[in-house]
Amino acid sequence: GQALMSLFVLSCKDGWVSIMYDGLDAVGVDQQPIRNNNPWMLLFFISFLLIVSFFVLNMFVGVVVENFHKCRQQQEEEEARLREEKRQKRLEKRRRRALEKPYYADYSPLRRSIHTLCTSNYLDLFITIIIFTNLLTMSMEHYNQPQYLEEILKYCNYVFTLVFVIEAILKLIAFGLRRFFKERWNQLDLAIVLLSIMGITLEEIDLSASLPINPTIIRIMRVLRITRVLKLLKMATGMRALLDTVMQALPQVGNLGLLFMLLFFIYAALGVELFGKLECSDENPCEGLSRHATFDNFGMAFLTLFRVSTGDNWNGIMKDTLRECRPHDRHCLSYLPLISPVYFVTFVLTAQFVLVNVVVAVLMKHLEESNKEAQLEEMEERKEMEERREMEERREREEASRR
Protein backbone atom coordinates (compact mmCIF):
# COMPACT_ATOMS: atom_id res chain seq x y z
CA GLY A 1 0.00 0.00 0.00
CA GLN A 2 2.74 2.46 0.92
CA ALA A 3 4.66 1.52 -2.24
CA LEU A 4 1.58 2.22 -4.38
CA MET A 5 1.09 5.55 -2.61
CA SER A 6 4.73 6.49 -3.20
CA LEU A 7 4.45 5.59 -6.88
CA PHE A 8 1.29 7.67 -7.24
CA VAL A 9 3.07 10.67 -5.68
CA LEU A 10 5.98 9.99 -8.04
CA SER A 11 3.64 9.94 -11.05
CA CYS A 12 2.23 13.33 -9.98
CA LYS A 13 5.80 14.74 -10.06
CA ASP A 14 5.33 16.23 -6.57
CA GLY A 15 8.70 15.88 -4.83
CA TRP A 16 9.67 12.92 -7.01
CA VAL A 17 13.38 13.81 -6.79
CA SER A 18 13.40 13.29 -3.00
CA ILE A 19 11.69 9.91 -3.40
CA MET A 20 14.19 8.90 -6.07
CA TYR A 21 17.24 9.78 -3.95
CA ASP A 22 15.74 8.00 -0.93
CA GLY A 23 15.41 4.93 -3.15
CA LEU A 24 19.04 5.24 -4.29
CA ASP A 25 20.23 5.45 -0.67
CA ALA A 26 18.07 2.56 0.61
CA VAL A 27 19.91 -0.48 2.02
CA GLY A 28 17.30 -2.67 3.69
CA VAL A 29 14.60 -2.80 6.36
CA ASP A 30 15.70 -1.15 9.65
CA GLN A 31 19.15 -0.38 8.20
CA GLN A 32 20.89 2.98 7.98
CA PRO A 33 20.79 4.41 4.40
CA ILE A 34 24.06 4.74 2.51
CA ARG A 35 24.55 7.51 -0.02
CA ASN A 36 24.10 6.21 -3.60
CA ASN A 37 23.98 2.63 -2.36
CA ASN A 38 22.17 1.40 -5.47
CA PRO A 39 22.62 3.86 -8.37
CA TRP A 40 20.97 1.47 -10.85
CA MET A 41 17.64 2.19 -9.14
CA LEU A 42 17.78 5.46 -11.06
CA LEU A 43 16.62 3.55 -14.15
CA PHE A 44 13.58 2.26 -12.26
CA PHE A 45 12.43 5.72 -11.19
CA ILE A 46 13.11 7.45 -14.51
CA SER A 47 11.47 4.69 -16.57
CA PHE A 48 8.43 4.70 -14.27
CA LEU A 49 8.16 8.48 -14.53
CA LEU A 50 8.40 8.38 -18.32
CA ILE A 51 5.90 5.55 -18.78
CA VAL A 52 3.29 6.43 -16.15
CA SER A 53 3.53 10.20 -15.76
CA PHE A 54 4.10 11.16 -19.39
CA PHE A 55 2.09 8.44 -21.16
CA VAL A 56 -0.36 6.49 -18.98
CA LEU A 57 -1.78 9.46 -17.06
CA ASN A 58 -2.04 11.55 -20.24
CA MET A 59 -3.82 8.66 -21.99
CA PHE A 60 -6.17 8.45 -19.02
CA VAL A 61 -6.91 12.16 -19.32
CA GLY A 62 -7.31 11.79 -23.09
CA VAL A 63 -9.87 9.01 -22.69
CA VAL A 64 -11.84 11.13 -20.20
CA VAL A 65 -11.80 14.15 -22.52
CA GLU A 66 -12.77 12.01 -25.54
CA ASN A 67 -15.73 10.54 -23.69
CA PHE A 68 -16.72 14.02 -22.57
CA HIS A 69 -16.81 15.18 -26.20
CA LYS A 70 -18.79 12.07 -27.20
CA CYS A 71 -21.38 12.82 -24.53
CA ARG A 72 -21.63 16.37 -25.89
CA GLN A 73 -21.62 15.38 -29.56
CA GLN A 74 -25.33 16.00 -30.10
CA GLN A 75 -25.16 19.34 -28.31
CA GLU A 76 -22.04 20.30 -30.29
CA GLU A 77 -23.82 19.48 -33.56
CA GLU A 78 -26.69 21.75 -32.52
CA GLU A 79 -24.22 24.52 -31.59
CA ALA A 80 -22.41 24.08 -34.91
CA ARG A 81 -25.72 24.35 -36.78
CA LEU A 82 -26.59 27.58 -34.94
CA ARG A 83 -23.14 29.02 -35.63
CA GLU A 84 -23.48 28.16 -39.32
CA GLU A 85 -26.87 29.88 -39.44
CA LYS A 86 -25.40 33.00 -37.83
CA ARG A 87 -22.49 32.94 -40.26
CA GLN A 88 -24.82 32.64 -43.26
CA LYS A 89 -26.90 35.55 -41.94
CA ARG A 90 -23.76 37.67 -41.57
CA LEU A 91 -22.66 36.80 -45.11
CA GLU A 92 -26.11 37.56 -46.51
CA LYS A 93 -26.16 40.87 -44.68
CA ARG A 94 -22.69 41.67 -46.02
CA ARG A 95 -23.77 40.84 -49.59
CA ARG A 96 -26.79 43.14 -49.28
CA ARG A 97 -24.56 45.92 -47.99
CA ALA A 98 -22.18 45.42 -50.93
CA LEU A 99 -25.04 45.99 -53.38
CA GLU A 100 -26.40 48.97 -51.46
CA LYS A 101 -25.15 52.50 -51.64
CA PRO A 102 -22.41 52.97 -48.98
CA TYR A 103 -23.40 55.06 -45.98
CA TYR A 104 -20.51 57.49 -46.58
CA ALA A 105 -21.53 58.22 -50.19
CA ASP A 106 -23.21 61.51 -49.23
CA TYR A 107 -20.34 62.70 -47.05
CA SER A 108 -18.62 65.98 -47.81
CA PRO A 109 -15.06 65.74 -49.18
CA LEU A 110 -13.59 66.65 -45.76
CA ARG A 111 -15.67 64.09 -43.87
CA ARG A 112 -14.94 61.42 -46.48
CA SER A 113 -11.21 62.04 -46.13
CA ILE A 114 -11.60 61.68 -42.33
CA HIS A 115 -13.51 58.43 -42.91
CA THR A 116 -10.73 57.15 -45.19
CA LEU A 117 -8.18 57.99 -42.51
CA CYS A 118 -10.15 56.25 -39.75
CA THR A 119 -10.65 53.08 -41.80
CA SER A 120 -7.03 52.87 -42.95
CA ASN A 121 -4.29 50.82 -41.32
CA TYR A 122 -2.09 53.89 -40.95
CA LEU A 123 -4.17 55.31 -38.10
CA ASP A 124 -4.13 51.95 -36.30
CA LEU A 125 -0.36 51.75 -36.72
CA PHE A 126 0.09 55.29 -35.39
CA ILE A 127 -2.15 54.61 -32.36
CA THR A 128 -0.26 51.36 -31.68
CA ILE A 129 3.05 53.28 -31.61
CA ILE A 130 1.49 55.88 -29.29
CA ILE A 131 0.21 53.17 -26.92
CA PHE A 132 3.61 51.44 -26.75
CA THR A 133 5.29 54.80 -26.10
CA ASN A 134 2.72 55.52 -23.40
CA LEU A 135 3.42 52.16 -21.76
CA LEU A 136 7.14 52.93 -21.87
CA THR A 137 6.64 56.27 -20.09
CA MET A 138 4.34 54.66 -17.52
CA SER A 139 7.02 52.06 -16.75
CA MET A 140 9.49 54.87 -15.99
CA GLU A 141 7.53 56.02 -12.93
CA HIS A 142 9.07 55.05 -9.58
CA TYR A 143 9.12 56.02 -5.93
CA ASN A 144 10.99 59.24 -5.05
CA GLN A 145 11.46 60.11 -8.72
CA PRO A 146 13.10 63.47 -9.56
CA GLN A 147 10.89 66.51 -10.05
CA TYR A 148 11.97 67.00 -13.66
CA LEU A 149 11.02 63.39 -14.53
CA GLU A 150 7.63 63.85 -12.88
CA GLU A 151 7.01 66.96 -14.98
CA ILE A 152 8.10 65.21 -18.19
CA LEU A 153 5.84 62.22 -17.51
CA LYS A 154 2.94 64.52 -16.68
CA TYR A 155 3.21 66.40 -19.98
CA CYS A 156 3.68 63.12 -21.86
CA ASN A 157 0.40 61.94 -20.34
CA TYR A 158 -1.26 65.15 -21.54
CA VAL A 159 0.03 64.54 -25.09
CA PHE A 160 -1.12 60.90 -25.14
CA THR A 161 -4.54 61.84 -23.78
CA LEU A 162 -4.84 64.56 -26.43
CA VAL A 163 -4.02 62.03 -29.17
CA PHE A 164 -6.69 59.63 -27.87
CA VAL A 165 -9.24 62.46 -27.65
CA ILE A 166 -8.51 63.50 -31.25
CA GLU A 167 -8.84 59.87 -32.37
CA ALA A 168 -12.25 59.56 -30.67
CA ILE A 169 -13.46 62.85 -32.20
CA LEU A 170 -12.30 61.83 -35.69
CA LYS A 171 -14.12 58.49 -35.40
CA LEU A 172 -17.27 60.20 -34.17
CA ILE A 173 -17.16 62.47 -37.22
CA ALA A 174 -16.35 59.59 -39.60
CA PHE A 175 -18.92 57.05 -38.42
CA GLY A 176 -21.57 59.14 -36.72
CA LEU A 177 -23.01 58.52 -33.26
CA ARG A 178 -25.04 55.42 -34.11
CA ARG A 179 -22.29 53.54 -35.97
CA PHE A 180 -19.65 54.67 -33.48
CA PHE A 181 -21.46 53.29 -30.44
CA LYS A 182 -22.53 50.17 -32.32
CA GLU A 183 -18.91 48.99 -32.22
CA ARG A 184 -17.92 47.80 -28.73
CA TRP A 185 -14.25 48.61 -29.24
CA ASN A 186 -15.21 52.22 -29.90
CA GLN A 187 -17.17 52.22 -26.64
CA LEU A 188 -14.05 50.96 -24.86
CA ASP A 189 -11.92 53.66 -26.52
CA LEU A 190 -14.35 56.37 -25.41
CA ALA A 191 -14.43 55.01 -21.84
CA ILE A 192 -10.60 55.07 -21.72
CA VAL A 193 -10.58 58.65 -23.02
CA LEU A 194 -13.12 59.78 -20.41
CA LEU A 195 -11.14 58.08 -17.62
CA SER A 196 -7.95 59.80 -18.81
CA ILE A 197 -9.63 63.22 -18.88
CA MET A 198 -11.15 62.61 -15.45
CA GLY A 199 -7.75 61.61 -14.03
CA ILE A 200 -6.03 64.73 -15.39
CA THR A 201 -8.85 66.94 -14.11
CA LEU A 202 -8.67 65.47 -10.60
CA GLU A 203 -4.87 65.85 -10.52
CA GLU A 204 -5.09 69.50 -11.57
CA ILE A 205 -7.81 70.20 -8.99
CA ASP A 206 -5.69 68.53 -6.30
CA LEU A 207 -2.60 70.55 -7.27
CA SER A 208 -4.51 73.82 -7.22
CA ALA A 209 -6.03 72.83 -3.83
CA SER A 210 -9.35 74.33 -4.87
CA LEU A 211 -11.25 71.26 -3.67
CA PRO A 212 -10.22 68.61 -1.13
CA ILE A 213 -9.88 65.27 -2.99
CA ASN A 214 -9.13 61.91 -1.45
CA PRO A 215 -5.61 60.86 -2.59
CA THR A 216 -6.87 57.29 -3.00
CA ILE A 217 -9.15 58.41 -5.83
CA ILE A 218 -6.22 60.02 -7.65
CA ARG A 219 -4.13 56.87 -7.20
CA ILE A 220 -6.99 54.77 -8.59
CA MET A 221 -7.27 57.04 -11.62
CA ARG A 222 -3.51 56.71 -12.21
CA VAL A 223 -3.75 52.94 -11.99
CA LEU A 224 -6.62 52.96 -14.49
CA ARG A 225 -4.26 54.42 -17.10
CA ILE A 226 -3.06 50.87 -17.68
CA THR A 227 -6.43 50.20 -19.35
CA ARG A 228 -5.01 51.96 -22.41
CA VAL A 229 -3.21 48.72 -23.23
CA LEU A 230 -6.66 47.25 -23.98
CA LYS A 231 -6.71 49.40 -27.12
CA LEU A 232 -4.05 47.06 -28.52
CA LEU A 233 -6.55 44.20 -28.50
CA LYS A 234 -8.51 45.98 -31.20
CA MET A 235 -5.51 45.81 -33.55
CA ALA A 236 -4.43 42.27 -32.56
CA THR A 237 -6.69 40.00 -34.64
CA GLY A 238 -5.30 36.78 -33.14
CA MET A 239 -5.87 37.93 -29.57
CA ARG A 240 -9.37 39.08 -30.44
CA ALA A 241 -10.13 35.66 -31.91
CA LEU A 242 -8.82 34.06 -28.72
CA LEU A 243 -11.00 36.33 -26.57
CA ASP A 244 -14.03 35.60 -28.75
CA THR A 245 -13.34 31.88 -28.30
CA VAL A 246 -13.19 32.25 -24.53
CA MET A 247 -16.45 34.22 -24.55
CA GLN A 248 -18.16 31.55 -26.67
CA ALA A 249 -16.90 28.80 -24.35
CA LEU A 250 -17.99 30.62 -21.18
CA PRO A 251 -21.37 28.83 -20.81
CA GLN A 252 -19.76 25.41 -21.04
CA VAL A 253 -16.75 26.39 -18.92
CA GLY A 254 -19.18 27.93 -16.43
CA ASN A 255 -20.90 24.57 -16.00
CA LEU A 256 -17.54 22.92 -15.40
CA GLY A 257 -16.69 25.73 -12.98
CA LEU A 258 -19.83 24.99 -10.99
CA LEU A 259 -18.79 21.33 -10.90
CA PHE A 260 -15.38 22.47 -9.69
CA MET A 261 -16.95 24.54 -6.91
CA LEU A 262 -19.19 21.64 -5.88
CA LEU A 263 -16.17 19.32 -5.71
CA PHE A 264 -14.21 21.83 -3.61
CA PHE A 265 -17.22 22.44 -1.35
CA ILE A 266 -17.69 18.73 -0.64
CA TYR A 267 -14.00 18.04 -0.03
CA ALA A 268 -13.53 21.21 2.06
CA ALA A 269 -16.43 20.30 4.35
CA LEU A 270 -15.12 16.74 4.60
CA GLY A 271 -11.58 18.02 5.26
CA VAL A 272 -12.74 20.23 8.13
CA GLU A 273 -14.53 17.25 9.66
CA LEU A 274 -11.57 14.87 9.26
CA PHE A 275 -8.48 17.05 9.68
CA GLY A 276 -9.78 20.18 11.41
CA LYS A 277 -8.36 19.23 14.83
CA LEU A 278 -4.85 18.30 13.70
CA GLU A 279 -2.29 20.41 15.55
CA CYS A 280 1.17 21.47 14.45
CA SER A 281 3.59 22.04 17.35
CA ASP A 282 7.10 21.16 18.47
CA GLU A 283 5.81 17.82 19.71
CA ASN A 284 3.77 17.22 16.55
CA PRO A 285 5.76 18.89 13.72
CA CYS A 286 4.11 19.30 10.34
CA GLU A 287 5.68 19.09 6.90
CA GLY A 288 2.89 20.57 4.78
CA LEU A 289 0.24 21.91 7.15
CA SER A 290 0.84 25.39 8.61
CA ARG A 291 -1.12 28.53 9.40
CA HIS A 292 -1.24 29.13 5.64
CA ALA A 293 -2.43 25.58 4.84
CA THR A 294 -4.86 24.13 7.34
CA PHE A 295 -8.30 22.55 7.66
CA ASP A 296 -9.28 24.53 10.79
CA ASN A 297 -12.18 26.25 9.03
CA PHE A 298 -14.04 26.03 5.74
CA GLY A 299 -12.31 29.03 4.11
CA MET A 300 -8.78 27.83 4.85
CA ALA A 301 -9.74 24.29 3.83
CA PHE A 302 -10.97 25.67 0.50
CA LEU A 303 -7.67 27.52 -0.08
CA THR A 304 -5.66 24.47 0.99
CA LEU A 305 -7.53 22.31 -1.51
CA PHE A 306 -6.87 24.87 -4.23
CA ARG A 307 -3.18 24.57 -3.36
CA VAL A 308 -3.46 20.77 -3.54
CA SER A 309 -5.14 21.03 -6.96
CA THR A 310 -2.11 22.94 -8.28
CA GLY A 311 0.17 20.12 -7.08
CA ASP A 312 2.10 22.29 -4.60
CA ASN A 313 3.40 20.04 -1.76
CA TRP A 314 0.14 18.12 -1.47
CA ASN A 315 2.29 15.11 -0.57
CA GLY A 316 3.54 16.92 2.55
CA ILE A 317 -0.01 17.85 3.57
CA MET A 318 -1.12 14.25 3.17
CA LYS A 319 1.85 13.02 5.25
CA ASP A 320 0.74 15.23 8.16
CA THR A 321 -2.70 13.63 8.09
CA LEU A 322 -1.17 10.13 8.10
CA ARG A 323 0.75 10.44 11.37
CA GLU A 324 0.14 7.87 14.07
CA CYS A 325 -1.81 8.76 17.20
CA ARG A 326 0.15 9.46 20.38
CA PRO A 327 -1.08 8.22 23.77
CA HIS A 328 -2.40 11.58 25.05
CA ASP A 329 -3.39 13.16 21.71
CA ARG A 330 -7.14 13.80 22.09
CA HIS A 331 -7.53 15.28 18.62
CA CYS A 332 -5.98 12.39 16.68
CA LEU A 333 -8.36 10.05 14.88
CA SER A 334 -7.15 6.47 14.60
CA TYR A 335 -8.87 5.83 11.25
CA LEU A 336 -7.15 8.74 9.41
CA PRO A 337 -4.30 6.58 7.96
CA LEU A 338 -6.99 4.61 6.09
CA ILE A 339 -9.19 7.51 4.95
CA SER A 340 -6.55 10.17 4.22
CA PRO A 341 -4.97 8.46 1.14
CA VAL A 342 -8.40 7.86 -0.38
CA TYR A 343 -9.35 11.51 0.30
CA PHE A 344 -6.25 13.03 -1.32
CA VAL A 345 -5.84 10.56 -4.19
CA THR A 346 -9.45 10.93 -5.36
CA PHE A 347 -9.28 14.73 -5.07
CA VAL A 348 -5.98 14.98 -6.98
CA LEU A 349 -7.22 12.66 -9.73
CA THR A 350 -10.51 14.53 -10.11
CA ALA A 351 -9.35 18.13 -9.74
CA GLN A 352 -5.77 18.11 -11.01
CA PHE A 353 -6.01 15.56 -13.82
CA VAL A 354 -9.62 15.44 -15.00
CA LEU A 355 -11.48 18.74 -14.53
CA VAL A 356 -8.61 21.10 -15.38
CA ASN A 357 -7.81 19.16 -18.55
CA VAL A 358 -11.47 19.01 -19.54
CA VAL A 359 -11.66 22.83 -19.28
CA VAL A 360 -8.53 23.14 -21.45
CA ALA A 361 -10.00 20.65 -23.95
CA VAL A 362 -13.23 22.67 -24.18
CA LEU A 363 -11.28 25.88 -24.89
CA MET A 364 -9.11 24.13 -27.49
CA LYS A 365 -12.20 22.69 -29.20
CA HIS A 366 -13.82 26.12 -29.42
CA LEU A 367 -10.57 27.66 -30.69
CA GLU A 368 -10.35 25.02 -33.42
CA GLU A 369 -13.95 25.67 -34.47
CA SER A 370 -13.45 29.44 -34.47
CA ASN A 371 -10.36 29.03 -36.69
CA LYS A 372 -12.39 26.94 -39.14
CA GLU A 373 -15.14 29.57 -39.19
CA ALA A 374 -12.56 32.33 -39.76
CA GLN A 375 -11.11 30.42 -42.72
CA LEU A 376 -14.59 29.89 -44.19
CA GLU A 377 -15.44 33.57 -43.79
CA GLU A 378 -12.15 34.53 -45.44
CA MET A 379 -12.95 32.27 -48.40
CA GLU A 380 -16.45 33.75 -48.64
CA GLU A 381 -15.02 37.28 -48.55
CA ARG A 382 -12.61 36.47 -51.38
CA LYS A 383 -15.43 34.96 -53.40
CA GLU A 384 -17.59 38.00 -52.69
CA MET A 385 -14.81 40.38 -53.78
CA GLU A 386 -14.36 38.43 -57.03
CA GLU A 387 -18.11 38.56 -57.71
CA ARG A 388 -18.15 42.29 -57.00
CA ARG A 389 -15.19 42.82 -59.33
CA GLU A 390 -16.92 40.83 -62.08
CA MET A 391 -20.11 42.86 -61.62
CA GLU A 392 -18.17 46.13 -61.88
CA GLU A 393 -16.34 44.93 -65.00
CA ARG A 394 -19.65 43.81 -66.55
CA ARG A 395 -21.21 47.18 -65.72
CA GLU A 396 -18.26 49.04 -67.27
CA ARG A 397 -18.51 46.92 -70.44
CA GLU A 398 -22.25 47.61 -70.70
CA GLU A 399 -21.68 51.34 -70.30
CA ALA A 400 -18.90 51.22 -72.91
CA SER A 401 -21.14 49.34 -75.39
CA ARG A 402 -23.92 51.91 -74.92
CA ARG A 403 -21.53 54.68 -75.82
UniProtKB/TrEMBL annotation:
Gene3D superfamilies per record: 1.10.287.70, Voltage-gated potassium channels. Chain C
Top-rank lineage group of the source organism: Eukaryota
Cross-referenced InterPro entries: Ion_trans_dom, PKD_2, VGCC_Ca_Na, Volt_channel_dom_sf
Keywords: Coiled coil, Membrane, Transmembrane, Transmembrane helix
Ion transport domain boundaries: 1-76, 121-374
Compartment list: Membrane
Name used for this protein in its record: Calcium channel, voltage-dependent, T type, alpha 1H subunit b
Pfam families given in the database record: Ion_trans
GO annotations of cellular component type: neuron projection; voltage-gated sodium channel complex
PANTHER family attached to this UniProt entry: VOLTAGE-DEPENDENT T-TYPE CALCIUM CHANNEL SUBUNIT ALPHA-1H (PTHR10037:SF192), VOLTAGE-GATED CATION CHANNEL CALCIUM AND SODIUM (PTHR10037)
Start and end residues of each stretch annotated as Disordered: 371-403
Natural source organism: Nothobranchius kadleci (African annual killifish)
Coiled coil start-end: 65-101
GO biological process, one term: positive regulation of calcium ion-dependent exocytosis
Residues spanning the membrane: 40-65, 121-138, 158-177, 249-270, 343-364
